Structure formats: C-alpha cells, structure tokens
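S.,

Sequence below, as promised.
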Amino acid sequence: MRIESMANANGHALNSLHARRLGLDTQYEAVVFMHKHCHVCRSEGFSAHTRVLLCHGDRTLIATLYQVTSDLIAHDEAALSESAWKRLGLHDGDRIMVTHPAPLDSLSHLRSRIYGHRLNANAFRAIVKDIVDGHYSDIHLSSFITACSVLPLDHDEIFALTDAMVNAGGRLTWPAGIVVDKHSVGGLPGNRTTPIVVAIAASLGLTMPKTSSRAITSPAGTADMMETLAPVELDTAAIRRVVEQEGGCVVWGGAVKLSPADDILIRTERALDLDTEGQLIASVLSKKIAAGSTHLIVDMPVGPTAKVRSAKAAQVLSESLISIGAAFGLRVQVVLGDGMQPIGRGIGPALEARDVLAVLQRSPDAPLDLRRRALALAGAVVELADLAAAGEGEALAAQVLDDGRAWAKFQRICKAQGGMRIPPLARQFRPLNARQEGRVQAIDNRKIARLAKLAGAPDDRAAGVDLHVRLGDLIVVGQPLCTVHADTPGELAYAFEFAAANSDIISVRPE
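The prediction came back faster than expected:
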C-alpha cells in the first residue's frame, strides 16, 4: 500500500511520527499510543480507541489507538506495543506514517448478524478475510463471536464459515489415500488421548498428521500438553519431514497458518469463556480439512458438567459434524464417552503429559481410564481406515501399545519434531483434603478445570490439579482428594480460596 502525504520543513511527512518501542505486551492485538494533542491526532481527528493504519516501508498494520495527556509520550512520538513493533519490522530511530484505514465493508455484515439476520457465504468470506488480515480489533472479534452465540449458526452458515476459514489459510496435501485424524470436542479435564492414538496409528502404517489447538476454555490444550514433551511450533516443511519419516506428528496448527482465523477466534473465545456449537464445528472441521485429513474420529464425552451435557445434545452435534464433514468429502465418525468425571489424574499441561507417558510406557500405575479411552479411540481410527474389521480395532490397538511399538514410535516422533523434553515440575503444591468421610458422589468437571486455571494452567505449564480419587471411592476425613500445583504461593492461595468457596468441586456423601 502506497501512502502519499505532504512533507514538513524537516522533510518528514506531516502524518509521520518517531516510532518508540514501549515494551508493552498486548499479546496479539496491535496497539499504538500517541499524545492526544500531537499534530497527527489533531489533523486527522483521531480519538481514543480509533482504529488507525500504521505504515513503515512496504509494511502496513491496523492498530487500536490509545491517547496520552501526560509527558509519557512526546508530541512527535508513536509508542507501539510489542506485537505492532515486530509486525512492522521496526528499529530504533524509524518513523511511521499514521492515517485513517479504509472502511471495512464486512462490518455491515457483522452488524446485520448482531441484529439477528442470517449471513451468506460472501458475508462470511469477507468477515474471515478481515479477521485474518488483522483488521478486526478485539471488540470486533468479541462482537462476532457473541452474535454467533446469541443466535446460533444454522447448517448453511456453519458450512459457509467452515469454507471461509479453510480458504483463508494454507492447505496440506498428502500422497496417502487415507489420512486419519482424531479430535476431542473438549469439556473433560485430563482427556489427553491424542499422543497415544497418533503413536498407535503411525505404528500401524497409517498417516496421521495431527495439528492441535491450544487451550480455549480448558486448563490445557493438546498442543500445550505436547509442548512439554517436544517442540510443536513446526513449519510446513518440518511437518512434512516428520510425517514422511514417522507417519505422524502432534503439532500446533497455528504455526502453519491452517485455518488461521480459527486461532484468532480461539484467543477471543478463551477470554469470553465461550465455545459455541456452530463455531466449534467450523473450528474442528476447518483445521482437519486444511490439514488434508480424509477420515476423522471425534471423541465426544457426555455428562452434566462436560461441554456436551446430554444424549440429545450429543446427537444434534454429531449429526452436524457428520453432515458438514461429508459436504467437504471428510468421513466423520463420532465416538461417545463417559463425561461424568475427568480422565486420568493430571489436569494441566505437564501433569497430563506425565499420564500420557505412563500409558505409553506401560507403567503399572498408569491411569486405567486414560488407557481405555485411548484404546477405544485408536481402535475406532484403525477400523475407520479399514485396517481392522468392526469390533476388532481396539484389540489391535492394545497389541501395539502392549508390545512397546507405540512407545518406540512416540519417542521417534518427538525426536523428529526437535527432541524429547522432560515435563516441568511446579514449585508450589498443596493437597486439598476431605472435610468429611463418605463416598465420592460427584466431581464437577467445570469447577475442577477452573481450579487448575486459577493455579496458573495452561500458561504455567507445570500448574494444575492432580486427582487422587474417583467416583464411588470411599474416603476418610483428612484424606487428600487432589493436589493443587502452582508456580507461586499467590496463585496457590488464590486457587484454595476458590476451593474453600466451592465445596462441591469434589462432592462427598456420608455413608
């Protein structure tokens, strides 16, 4: 984009300012600070929260403007957040031009959706393009997500959003005729089966390039957990090398720009603690289609405190996933599971990685529920890929796990991705003890996940919760129900304040 502007007596463009690196972490949002009475703000009529176009050389960026009235920012300076500084490729002493951006036509579609109108394919393409191009602020993004939550997306809208998200980024293709994948809809803490399933499938000669997401509303996403064991931010060439060499991988999809709008929306969904059905379907399927998958197993836990709370809701979501997938030539099979309590013991990236390793290494104290669920899903994968007859896939998967092939394959995958790591340990931990004797009646998935997040997960990889009891267990007063892991005493204390106010996180019924 070429910007024309008149120059002042010093030869600088009248709408240019000295760029200053503020060292402010705003995560992914581009932010610029300017003095309220600087010549650019006055001449352009800028006010706080205006979206402005920043230009440096051939790079451009739309940022949110905040204004300063003190001497923190000089009148000839534009102070940039780290995100904006890096994306413009700036160095000390550079100048940037600040102007009004072109109007966003897609905002008319967004406003229409806010008022309850359905959107067509062209509208979704325009919105998704502007999201990927960085034209939407966090306010715009949250408005779009909310508008699609209050009035749920219908079948045609889900298809259109999925298609727009697929075509807004890169796509992978593979020589194998069958490319398998597995995804969990989430909502069940500790349900970290993916590395086990990938290791089993790859050991059997299947192609399984698993691109995973980071956490949205959970204490850990698969990518967060896997990152404690091996690098996950691989580019396309590296992913191809790993898959060609080992048959499978477990990487973060955002690093290769597969459905890049999804990663942007996920960040906002996480802040809003929202993960609605239509956007969930578009998120899951767009990533799988862009990754070149042909066959997909969807793990869907069902329970009163899981993401999918009833059999009826599971049926509706399953039918939508299958029908939207089929429209893109993706064969989808949904495997329902028990969502009454967390799977495994650990909840949080490193604690979940420990459980995964225990299952792969056939450790005597490995969580049996995690092993069983992983084998059920791996069995479904090999049956869907026609490597085993119906009802025989799980036995084949168990054989591969028990004879050590899956563990050997997983180690090779980690090595190919950049080297295997040892999951970190938290510096602070404290048990949550039972206040009365009796039998464990219920474990609230949402509250136990909240407890792990308050302790610092997933940002602190070692933080989280280690469960010591299961539904139906008999316990005595003072027995540890779980142990909370945190990086700092403050986070640990904050988590225990929540636990003290929510005694039903793990409910005990007197006998």
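Residues 1-9 have pLDDT under 50 and may be disordered.

Coffee later?
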